[in-house]
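Input set for joint prediction.
Command: fold jointly, output tokens.
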Amino acid sequence: MVTPPSDRFPTSVAGLPAARPTEIVDLADGDEYELRIAPVAKRIGDATVRMLAYNGSIPGPTLRVPEGATVTVHVENEGDLPATVHWHGLRLDNRYDGTPDTQRPVQVGERYTAQVRTPDPGAYWYHPHIREDYGQELGLYGNVLVVPADPDYWPPAHREVLLTLDDVLLEDGRIAPFHRSGPTHSAMGRYGDVLLVAGETDLTLDARPGEVVRLHLTNTANTRVFDVALPGAELKLVGGDSGRVEQERLVDHVIVAPSERVVVDARFGASAELALEHRTPDRVHRLATVRVAGEPAAPGPADAFLEMRINAELAAERRRIEPHLITAPDKVLGFRAEMDDPGGHDHSGQGEHGHDHGGGHDHGGHGMGGDDGIEWDDHMAEANRQTTPANFRWLLVDQATGAANEAIDWQFREGDQVKIRLVNELAGDHPMHHPFHVHGAGRFLVLSRDGVVEPNLAWKDTVLVRTGETVDILLDVSNPGRWMAHCHIAEHHETGMMLGFTVVPARAPAPAPAE
Ligand code: C2O
Ligand code: CU
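tokens >
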């Protein structure tokens, strides 16, 4: 697989501005903001690589917006390819969803304006929706923090910190090659070999003794799942993708799948140096250092820390969804891989590296990353690299009709409650986990996993479906338009693992019966 120059993206850093620190930008209802996509030179460890940034920083600026606002964002594309900006998790007007289904792609050199609505408190994010395997890996992601109108929405904390969790794959001091013609790593997605937290390889955070710091974690990696711990501090789970959890509770770690958000409050004790960690069954990675030192923080938030609040709105949802626990699902969606005959598909690439034999390519039996149903690392890197949409397909299959991926065209009505069963099939060519994401047509609650009722509800837009797992969700359809749902592993999405659905307004004529 020798790549002709016309199929490569630029990699030279000559003349590029150095990446800047990420800014927090406060926007009020009605404000306008300019977001510019352009290349930067970014230092990653010892390497300086060409990446892409929103307004020159990786992550892009954090937009802090009040609940219930509408802000106007002008996007200018000076990147490498046509772009859209998708506002992940925000229930905004369909035409600003930022996908090629809802708008014409913004060509290089063009501008585009979106009206971004923020109906729900919580941490959201923005990223491209064309070749996100490339754009996201290169640094195109940033947070939107929606500040609740109710000052007691979140428990007391001294301050908030937003941390993106990401990784990047380097090869000989450069970003590992990408092709303009399409993605690679279709099988498992592109795992990086360097972890980036808030865009940094060796982030240091400062905290004071007795301080309570709210951490908004967003997984912006193409495929890696993070398991985050902070030994030496107490962690309280307070929120999920979209706002609060039903019951605050102490936790010793949290799992964050691609595109998910998890909100934890950390209470720090005496002076110490702590490590924010990512733990896999094989090893512990340091994500950041936390230096606890200095004058003790004012006691209020620490005193309230052990009060575990129950969120009345979600407690009411739990009663409301009870009947849906036992009804048959409205839709059943299978997750499945289809690989070309392994004997026939991969000798083309073997000449180049010539060592693909032992690489664990017997996809039936390779290490599944333990029995927790999560692939924590790429255990078949060389074989994975050679998978493309041409030799490997990921499918979402509607069990009722047999339709798959873009052939699925569900019809819903505003106000519908749709129970969807997500079945991550073990029988396919390469069973693994998939974070399933639904665009802003609504938000959903997880009803159960493998028949076990979800113990702590939160409004979700993404759910991790582990290898072999069956997850039931209840989608609260609230927003008309043409939407999509897909696996948020960027390479799986690019390999076709997505479906479309249409929501008609409550007052419109009934939709045609689903196919
Ligand atoms: Cu964050 Cu369609 O995705
Ligand atoms: Cu997937």
